[in-house]
Model the fold of this input.
Amino acid sequence: AAAPTSNFLRAIIDNDAATGHYAGREDAHGKPLPAVVTRFPPEPNGYLHIGHAKSICLNFGLARDYAGRCHLRFDDTNPAKEDQEYVDTIIDSVRWLGFDWTQDGSEHLYYASDYFPLLYQMAEYLITAGHAYVDSQSAEDMAASRGSFSEPGRDSPFRNRPADESLDLFRRMKAGEFADGEHILRAKIDMASPNMNMRDPAIYRIRHAHHHRTGDAWCIYPMYDYTHPISDALENITHSLCTLEFQDHRPFYDWVLERLAEGGFLKRPLPHQYEFARLNLTYAITSKRKLLQLVEEKIVDGWDDPRMPTIVGIRRRGYTPESVQLFCERIGVAKADSWIDMSILEGALRDDLDPKAPRAAAVLNPLKLVIDNFPENDTVECSAPVHPHDPSRGVRTFPISKTLWIEEEDFMEVPSKGYFRLFPGNKVRLRYGYVVECTGCDKDENGKVIAVHCNYFADSKSGTEGSANYKVKGNIHWVSAAHALQAEIRLYDRLFSDPHPDAGGRDFKLALNPAAKTVINAYLEPGMASTLPDQRFQFERHGYFVADRVDSQPGKPVFNRIATLKDSWAK
Ligand code: ATP
Ligand code: MG
Ligand code: MG
Done:
């Protein structure tokens, strides 16, 4: 593989390596720790999408390139929206993308909920040390006293209550004595800070809710901004990468770590948070909430609908893990938000599959071609390379006979200028078969062409000496009608026809592309009957296709179009 392109994060890591900032560390068992430890921290409240893939490739990719390690950590501190179903699909998606969290036989798979007891102890310490207090204001009063960007906040009347009173209340919060929202634990920082996130942010709230892993053991839950830095430190993370919207949260991230390091709960050197631009992909949406809406309103056929930008959707569509990795490498990481064009994702798929995908013939829009001078009931075997640039992959064979299927577009009764395919009096090559000369066509009562007629030249077969005597401009694909495999093909295209479907809070449903899914019946070369689910092909002249992993049956594959051969959206 090519050397990874440098970026600002690599520069930071290189600098830390040069100064030895994270060198010589050991874990709790005295085992040496790598100088680069990253993590991918999803909340198990939905399916991963292409934006998450960027974060996964970035975190796992850096760990791989710097001989470090990357943890998969579930940020499961919000019981209301989380579920085991999501944990399972996230694990599956990260694995499918090609990444692994085992190192030297140890699995680096973590759950923030496993830290609940420690997070609680640390909160008690913060109270005792005067860094946190229980606030008993109503939610409305708390919101009102927070101030605004132009106006400092006001201290809560409970801010200076004695530490042992806060501690007692906090313990009773934990014991379940209070209802949701009655009290809250807050960090004691600065209600006049220009950074709203430093105005005594909440650390713990009461939530009488069942947690998918801890059950009913807790009725108070730590906030994300409190949990995240501690989880990072407990796991000896070095570079904690997150998206730009967390930039204003960084001072609190550092505040939490400093206070707990002072208290002897955490070891230095502490992890550091860095922010990078999130992925915004044109013709797609990457908001969990909006994706959920598409599923719930049955606008798509589920999370793994091949039109969805979810990882399960992209996978079912036929994208390879390598193509997604290539895409993430190509887009790089930057410190400013921008839009990435969908054509870059599609281009990565083409570049990945072109050298890999076996070729096959498929007629998507069939029209009958009759070779009038071909012996009735006769067949001749034709052969074609599995891959045109790699003879070592052998050949595929299929018969030619008197009646074939060709594409409707490959015949014109009256040719337009520059049209070299079938029209009366013109010769074309039936790819890997014979040269034929068109003699005319049959029409139905409405004047629609229903069959094309031609004669073939018996000495023109591809691969034989005589074929060199025939110079024709047109070269079309075909399948023998009596031998073809009939198969359902789903022609997928971009889900939205507008590059920014949800721009400016617009209703993204108005931007849906009605042509994003077209189901057709096609004719394929006969060998395709043995296709296994998830096998990918280039259907010559059409694009890249995959046997659908859910709906394909033995001997009866169903295909999804992953991408056309060329970008049909380029302006
Ligand atoms: P929410 O917070 O609404 O549940 P989320 O998209 O932030 O949704 P998380 O599960 O918290 O989802 O995300 C896990 C990681 O993926 C985070 O580190 C987050 O920064 C990163 N991530 C999420 N969306 C994108 C994106 N579009 N581009 C790059 N990284 C992303
Ligand atoms: Mg999040
Ligand atoms: Mg988010």
